[in-house]
Design brief:
The structure holds two protein chains of two kinds. By secondary structure, chain A is an all-alpha fold. Chain A contains twelve helices and no strands. Chain A has one domain (about 5-255). Chain A is globular, with a radius of gyration of 20 Å. By secondary structure, chain B is an all-alpha fold. Chain B has two domains: about 30-205, Serine Threonine Protein Phosphatase 5, Tetratricopeptide repeat (Alpha Horseshoe), CATH 1.25.40; about 215-305, no CATH class. Chain B is flat and about 90 Å long. Chain B starts with a helix and ends in a 35-residue tail after the last strand. The chains are: A mainly alpha, B mainly alpha.
């Protein structure tokens, strides 16, 4: 990776930390410790399931919210504060700026997820008193959540490259919701006929399929996740991210910044 | 300083007002509301976090049952829908089947009195978790205890016993159902197995209560036989438990699991001294007896009565 991208990424990460993004970890810790302590008293035999389900759902939702709300401002804020002109007046290409921003945001989310993962495992140890070998599958679920973050970050950047922050947030969040129903969309597409079927199928494949990246329920029951799924999900997330980033770069390259 | 005082006063006012509002709101509205009754709709609305939603709905089901059970309610109209949503959201949530069936099947006030819904729930659970032998055991249990359908119970135990990691007692239970279904020994075996195979305090406590009830039912049956034998031999009824005990060469006055002596009425009926202490007994109850609120007398961890 070239040094300019690394520099922009590091700067983006520093800025996110300075914006007190990691403060969400406090809310997360309170949520998880509260659940670990209280669920045992108000429910029956689901302490472990709640910790895993709630912990991973919180990692995912907190991350998605951060990815969207920071991602949408990455380009527009730089334009608004006119710092973008300073950056682009140096020997930095526009695509390097977009890619650097992406890696900076992704790094922020990975660090955030890392601390949250420590919280999940600590809460799990508190309720179960020991770890089982199958608990390693939680790491796979976390890995898939990080893949989800990559897609969301790239989409937020894509929308941010041509739209206002508010609209970008609406678009990105809508795609997150639609992407969670991706399997249903394909089901609906299969029920239609003719041209509608083609259009519906194309739309179903174009939206990100977040349901395939969600194995939280499965790992909560200590069910194994196949190696093939891990590999193919990784490739899917990488290709989708590259696709959305390429779109962002294409638009940003042609954008008139005067 | 002024702002802090205003903040504290308004916060206290909010809490006070809410507690007053809670008092004037009809409780049934809060307890009986199931805003979305379609399991599929809840699953869609969970945005892929169906495992977490299942935990929330399971907790709601537990709270709903516990609250109504405590109040000695006889209607549990939302219990089955809550369990259906829970298991649709997460078909692998085994406690929802095991406990759900034990909430649904028993007659009120111990349960919802819906054994058919309990069977539906268990069959759904078996369909999605075919290798879980506990579910076959619990389903057979519902057939045995609530429906007295020993043939079906035997079939289910036999199905479960064929699983590779099934507990060996399932085979024994399947055989017992064929010939000795109504024996106390069979009932004792079932509840002892329930106690031994569960680590959950509630299940173990429930098993202990049933084992205590079986002991009482068996004692009363045997004493009633002794009274009849005495009647045949002496052409009259025994006047007291002392007389019966000495005529039958018993070692002292027979006592229930709590150490209280059984009573003998003037018309030769054997009664339990404190029927409220044995919520599951079917014999030795005074005429016209109405059960009080459920009481548990043994703590989890105590050994069951043999």
């Amino acid at each position: 990776m070239n040094s300019r991208i690394v520099y922009i990424a590091a700067n983006t990460f520093r800025e996110a930390v300075r914006d007190r993004v990691l403060y969400n970890l406090i809310a997360f810790a309170l949520l998880l410790s509260g659940a670990a302590i209280f669920v045992g008293q108000i429910s029956i035999e689901i302490e472990r399931l709640v910790v895993v389900n709630l912990g991973l759902a919180a990692v995912s939702l907190f991350g998605v919210v951060i990815a969207i709300f920071i991602g949408i401002g990455l380009v527009s804020k730089e334009i608004e504060k006119r710092t973008l002109y300073t950056v682009l007046s140096r020997p930095v290409r526009r695509w390097e700026f977009i890619v650097g921003k992406f890696f900076g945001l992704a790094a922020t989310l990975v660090v955030n997820a890392f601390f949250m993962a420590i919280g999940v495992f600590a809460a799990l140890l508190y309720v179960a008193h020991k770890f089982a070998a199958a608990d390693a599958m939680i790491l796979v679920a976390l890995y898939f959540i990080i893949l989800e973050f990559l897609i969301i970050c790239s989409l937020a950047l894509l929308f941010s490259s041509f739209s206002s922050p508010l609209l970008s947030a609406v678009f990105a969040f809508s795609l997150f919701v639609i992407g969670s129903f991706a399997d249903d969309l394909r089901g609906f597409a299969a029920m239609t006929h003719g041209l509608t079927r083609w259009i519906a199928t194309a739309a179903a494949y174009l939206v990100p399929n977040f349901s395939t990246l969600n194995v939280i329920s499965s790992v909560a029951h200590q069910h194994p996740v196949g190696g093939q799924l891990i590999l193919q999900n990784t490739l899917y997330a990488v290709f989708y991210t590259v696709m959305a980033l390429s779109g962002a770069v294409l638009i940003f390259e042609r954008r008139n910044l005067k | 300083m002024v702002a802090a005082t205003v903040l504290a006063v308004s916060m206290a006012s909010c809490v006070l007002l809410l507690s007053h509002i809670d008092k004037i709101r009809p409780r049934t509205i809060v307890d009986d509301s199931l805003y979305i009754s379609s399991p599929k709709l809840v699953k869609r609305a969970s945005l892929g976090f169906d495992g977490l939603m299942a935990c929330i709905y399971w907790t709601r089901a537990v709270q709903y049952f516990g609250h109504r059970h405590y109040l000695q309610e006889r209607s549990y109209s939302e219990l089955a829908p809550l369990l259906s949503i829970t298991t649709t959201l997460d078909p692998h949530l085994i406690p929802a089947y095991q406990f759900g069936a034990s909430f649904l099947a028993p007659a009120p006030p111990n349960g919802a009195g819906q054994p058919e819904r309990a069977i539906q729930l268990m069959e759904y659970g078996i369909e999605h978790n075919p290798d879980e032998w506990h579910l076959y055991y619990d389903l057979g249990f519902v057939y045995y205890t609530e429906l007295r359908d020993y043939k079906k119970a035997g079939e289910v135990f036999a199905r479960g016993s064929k699983l590779p990691d099934a507990h060996p007692f399932l085979k024994v239970l399947a055989a017992q159902m064929a010939e000795h279904a109504e024996d106390f020994a069979t009932a004792r075996m079932l509840w002892t197995a329930a106690y031994q195979t569960s680590q959950d305090a509630n299940i173990r406590q429930n098993a202990i209560e049933h084992l205590r009830a079986i002991k009482v039912d068996e004692d009363v049956t045997n004493l009633q036989i002794a009274v009849a034998r005495f009647n045949r031999r002496e052409a009259r009824l025994p006047t007291s438990m002392w007389e019966l005990a000495s005529a039958e060469h018993l070692q002292g006055i027979p006592v229930d699991p709590d150490g209280n002596a059984y009573d003998l009425t003037i018309d030769g009926r054997v009664l339990v001294a404190n029927p409220d202490d044995f919520p599951f007994i079917s014999r030795g109850l005074p005429p016209g007896y109405k059960p009080g609120p459920p009481k548990f007398h043994t703590r989890p961890g105590e050994t069951p009565i043999s």
